[in-house]
Amino acid sequence: MAAPRPIPASIPAPAADAGRGASGEVIRVRGLGKTYVTAAGPFPALKGVDLNIRHGEYVAIMGPSGSGKSTFMNLLGCLDTPTLGDYFLVGRNVAHLPGDELAILRNRTIGFVFQGFNLLPRMSLEDNVALPLVYARIEREPRRARAREMLARVGLEPYALSLPARISGGQQQRVAIARALINSPSLILADEPTGNLDSHTSEEIMALFRELNDEGITIVLVTHEPDIADHARRQVRFLDGLIVHDAPTPAREAGPC
Ligand SMILES: Nc1ncnc2c1ncn2[C@@H]1O[C@H](COP(=O)(O)OP(=O)(O)O)[C@@H](O)[C@H]1O
Ligand SMILES: [Mg+2]
Question: What percentage of the chain's residues is helix, strand, coil (to nearest 5)?
Fold first, then answer.
């Protein structure tokens, strides 16, 4: 997924009804399509997808490489525009929002987590976490205080003034999650967030996502690893630009005692 562009917005606090459309849906997608124009001609990466995600859900998006998962996530994150169909984010049809309103809606509603963490190497952890508030034009002191709070939330406040290279990959992903949380988003979009992590660290990151979901944050997470997808409560599978499976995660069987 591409990194979001800087967004000017005057107030970072979410709207009172942020996270819910009138019907309790965070995401409502109808006939969503994306055709890329390539040197070899048009390439339909997403071929008309319908999906509803309600407030508080935890959804894993699965499917083989090239099946359209990142294309779909980029559309959900308003980082790209569809060539077909409609997308309602917290009840608003984003296809018909002017660019600045869309940027504000995105900044207030969505936190992004990427496979490669996407931290700025020359900035302290605190400044990395505070970055969305810089785009929102918040003053330095309240920015700092809020960033510390978010770092404490992911257990890394003691490292606030360190550079990203001083901490492990798993810790860097926790910092990225703190950054995603700083505007109190109702939705977290994560594209392969454990793709660069070992299995033990991946489990720690998944435990953190589960806690955030238990607190009411809607999570949509892309993974191609079944073990990771099993942490979600619902699994949606893509194949060749279409959804071919959508069902609750089966209950885990108890292992042998
Ligand atoms: N910007 C682009 N231009 C042209 N083709 C693209 C672009 N982005 C993705 N694709 C193609 O669209 C298909 C779906 O890609 P993607 O959404 O990244 O799949 P996934 O995340 O499931 O691996 C792939 O065949 C990919 O090569
Ligand atoms: Mg991808």
Answer: 35, 25, 40
Residues with CB under 5 A from ligand 2 (ion): 69-70
Supply angle C-alpha 181, 185, 188, rounded to 5.
80
133: Cβ below 6 Å to ligand 1?
no
CA 214 to the chain's CA centroid: 16
Longest CA pairwise span in the chain (Å) = 58
CA distances to 45, 93, 208, 209, 214 from 189, rounded to whole Å, are 19, 18, 14, 11, 16
| Residue 209, pLDDT score | 97
Nearest-atom number in ligand 1 for the CA of 72 is 17
> Ligand 1: distance of its center to the CA of 221 in Å?
17
CA-CA-CA-CA torsion for 166, 171, 174, 178, nearest 10 degrees? -30
Q: Are 37 and 55 in contact (CB under 8 A)?
A: no
44-74 tens-digit pLDDT: 999 999 999 999 999 999 999 999 999 999 9
Q: Which atom of ligand 1 is nearest to the CA of 67?
A: 22
Nearest atom, ligand 1, residue 73 CA: 17
CA distance 56 to 62: 19
Q: Which ligand is nearest to the CA of 37?
A: 1
Q: Which domains does the chain have, with CATH numbers?
A: 57-79+108-248 (3.40.50.300)
The answer, yes or no, to whether any atom of ligand 1 lies below 6 A from the CB of 69, is yes
CB 63 near ligand 1, within 6 Å: yes
Is the shortest distance between the CB of 36 and ligand 1 below 6 Å?
yes
pTM of the prediction?
0.89
**Coil, strand or helix at 108:** helix
